[in-house]
Amino acid sequence: MKNILILFSFFIFLVSSAFCSQGEEYYKKGDFKAAADFYYAQTLENPYDYSAFYNYANCLYRLKDKAGALAYYMKAFEINPRNSDLFYNLNFLSVQTQAGLFPQDIPSFVYRIYFFLSLNEIKAAAFLSFWTFCLFSSLFFLEKAKNFSKTASVSFAALAVIFSLLYFFRINSVFHSAAVIKNSQARIMSGPGEDFKLIASAENAKPVKIISEAGEWIEIGLIGQGIKGWIKSEDIIKI
Predict the structure, then answer these.
(1) Total number of domains in the chain
(2) How far apart are CA 192 and CA 218, in angstroms?
(3) Are the C-beta atoms of residues 160 and 135 closer than 8 Å to each other?
(4) pTM, entire model
(5) Is 185 found in the same domain as 139?
């Protein structure tokens, strides 16, 4: 029985390796459209696999779709911000498109530290710290190892506060509830409809924050410009 399980596991490994290499083969041959279709299908099958979004973004960049590449690099970065190649490509494209995701007057290692954990990891750490604080607080009031319980309670309370604050700042960052403008000179209206006043236009490959939605119209905020307005959903790529 053990040998059968080992053989089955090895078979699954070979199949998955061959399946993943299919996209790489398309990419190496220069068939970026086929590679993009392959990796896009993978993003739908596994929306938590950062590598699928990363590879798809690489293909879109090769196809000269900078808006799409930026959006899917950002999506991959939101899932796994620790990957060095991903950070390099995202930062490079941000500079190239003047997206302003990582201001260049701040050293890159600062961003690597700030974005070391993903948003879900920060949320999990905050919950874990809070409930561990509750556990040690209970032990303290039950007079079980009071000195140790008190020290542990204070430590985990501090961690819970730190992770909660970090979570608050990160959900307000450009990577959360974000989108990328995909059409040049996309019109931004004062309300959700063509009859409202035109208040601004947005360039291709510019990141924006999503505020709310009303049918085919989405309320956005232009990052760093203090402008809010409504844009058609067809003019953006949601992250």
Answers:
(1) 3
(2) 7
(3) no
(4) 0.82
(5) no
When pLDDT is cut at 50, 70 and 90, the band that residue 145 belongs to is low
CB 94 within 8 A of CB 70: yes
Q: Same structural domain for residues 40 and 88?
A: yes
Is residue 108 one of the residues assigned to a domain?
A: no
Other CB atoms within 10 Å distance of the CB of residue 159: 17
Average pLDDT, the chain: 86
CA dist., res. 206 & res. 186, Å (int): 10
Are the C-beta atoms of residues 67 and 235 closer than 8 Å to each other? no
CA–CA gap between residue 55 and residue 122 (Å, rounded):
25
Q: Which domain holds residue 218?
A: 178-238
Cα angle 81, 87, 90 (rounded to 5 degrees) comes to: 115
Q: Say yes or no: 202 and 161 in one domain.
A: no
From the CA atom positions of the chain, what is the Rg in Å? 23
Q: In whole angstroms, what is the distance from residue 193 CA to residue 93 CA? A: 32
Q: What is the DSSP letter of 235?
A: G
Sheet holding 198-202, edge to edge: 198-202, 186-189, 227-232, 217-222, 207-214, 178-181, 236-238
What would the two tokens of residue 234 be? Answer: 């067809």
Supply the pLDDT for residue 8. 43
CA–CA gap between residue 192 and residue 20 (Å, rounded): 42
- Residue 87's pLDDT band (boundaries 50, 70, 90)? very high
HSE, side-chain direction, 13 A CA sphere, residue 235? 24
The predicted pLDDT at position 20 comes to 56
The most confident of 95-104, 140-149, 163-172, by mean pLDDT: 163-172
